[in-house]
Amino acid sequence: MAYQIEYVIGANTYNLSNQSPEFMVHYLGDENFGMAPLHMITSRSPAQHGDTTLDFRLDPRIIQIPLLVECDTLQQQYDMRNYLLSIFKPSNVNGRLVVTYPDGRERAITTRVLGGLDFNMETSAGYSIRSIIKFRCSDPTWYNPIPKTLPIATIAGTPTAYPKIYPTTYGTTSFGGSFDLTYVGTWLSYPIITVTGPVTNFSITNSSSGQNITLVAGTVIAAGTTLRFDLRFGFKTVTDQAGVNKIGLVDASSELAQFAIFPAPDVPDAINSLVVTGTATTTASSVALSYYDRYIGI
Fold first, then answer.
1. H helices within 42-105, ranges in order?
2. What domains can you pick out in the chain, each with its CATH number?
């Protein structure tokens, strides 16, 4: 498969890296696909030489893609200008850049058009267009656009002691177990967790990072009810199957903002051990975790 860069917005996909019937575009390179920009968070005492590093944060990424669009006449140039501006005009609708590696792997990043396409022209150089498209990426990390979904709940029985008077029901069904997720991304991923009832006292813990999400004690997710924990930044919501806000069911000790799937070295060998608990479940009960493998750069 050939290497390519595509811009996707709405239902439309545009190839920026190869000559095509729509574009007649020549790909001239790219800027800022690698390491995401960042800044350090530090403190400094009055008499301290240097400073103390406390943490860091990634900053938004600015991507630039220079293009050459072949035009033979002035009219064709203006037609192509109008065409390019109709695609890459500023909008509040997110688009994404999708890079396909020569081996077929894909990496995507969410974008909005920042500018470029100023069309400074010198007719002495011919009528072809040389310009730059600028994109701003509020989330500067790339991701594999194929999501992963992991069913992580099992039904476990509680043994019943002998002797026992018959008839009786053996065991009380419950979620149980630890599930090891080996994460292949290079940057942490905030998942979507879907819980389908019936289940009482639901809890999920990433024991590798120590983060936990727990519902208020005694909370019952009824049969036929689904709770969706969307932990992505810009969302951070807890809703039911009708989209009703249910964040009030979450215990105050929970870490909705920080709960994530971590790469190495944040957790050893990138192994995230997820522990799910709950009681009063049936075979209809389930928990699933969906996420994207995310990358600090490509």
1. 74-87
2. 4-140 (2.40.30.200), 148-295 (2.60.120)
